[in-house]
Amino acid sequence: MRFLSFTLLTSIVSICAAHNVLLPPHGRRCFFEKLNKNDELAVSFQFGDRAPESTDQLKGDFVIYGAETNAVVKAFRDVSHGEVRVQAPYDGKFEYCFLNENSGTETKDVTFNIQGTLYVDLDDPNSNTLDGAVRHLARLTNELKNEQSYIVIRERTHRNTAESTNDRVKWWSIFQLSVVIASSLFQIYYLKRFFEVTSYV
Q1: What 3-state DSSP class applies to 170?
Q2: Cα dihedral sign for 9, 2, 80, 83?
């Protein structure tokens, strides 16, 4: 018997199912649930008598066994009703049993509701939930925004470097042109003085 859990827009969602079983005399009825770590299993139950003429409130035992070494996770002894909620500390198959081992009553039954809560890691990229997909999309959007900001800053830095280099090249070219003009004027002046004819009276 499996409980189903679905997740929509939230990290946990529960689904409930009601059952009624007849307990054998000096016997037990056991059920299994496969849980993942941090999943929750909640069971509420009430013992009753199927005999129409009975007016007694019957009692019984309820035990939840862990997946490892059948350790008792939770137990109720000689109770007419109860409610328990346990969180799975590890992955595995958990067993819960309704016991009638101390009684030979053949008409004892138990009505119980089982509620499972599936734990969903919203940061898990393999999560198939809508909320998980929205969070994954938001994370990707933030990463894209950060990458764009980095590109803008990098472009600004490179542009400033290029403009600085252009300014240096411009001023160096102006300096070279000035040196060439000055050298040309000096050569013209020197050659003009060199070829001047000096006349003495």
Answers
A1: helix
A2: negative
What are 159-186's pLDDT values in tens digits?
Answer: 988 999 999 999 999 999 999 999 999 9
Containing 190, the helix (H) or strand (E) segment is helix 130-194
Task: Give the C-alpha separation, 71 to 63, whole Å.
Answer: 10
Number of domains in the chain: 1
In percent, the amount of the chain with pLDDT more than 90 equals: 28
8 is a domain residue: no
Whole domain around residue 72: which residue ranges?
Answer: 14-117
Give domain status of residue 77, yes or no. Answer: yes
CATH number at residue 49: 2.60.120.380
Q: What is the dihedral of CA 11, 9, 33, 98, to 10 degrees?
A: 90
**In this structure, is the dihedral angle defined by the CA atoms of residues 27, 32, 38 and 39, taken in order, positive or negative?**
negative
Range with lowest mean pLDDT among 7-16, 68-77, 84-93, 124-133: 7-16
Q: What is the pLDDT of residue 185?
A: 93
Is residue 128 within 8 Å of residue 71, measured between CB atoms? no
SS3 sequence of 2-40: CCCCCCCCCCCCEEEEEEEEECCCCCEEEEEEEECCCCE
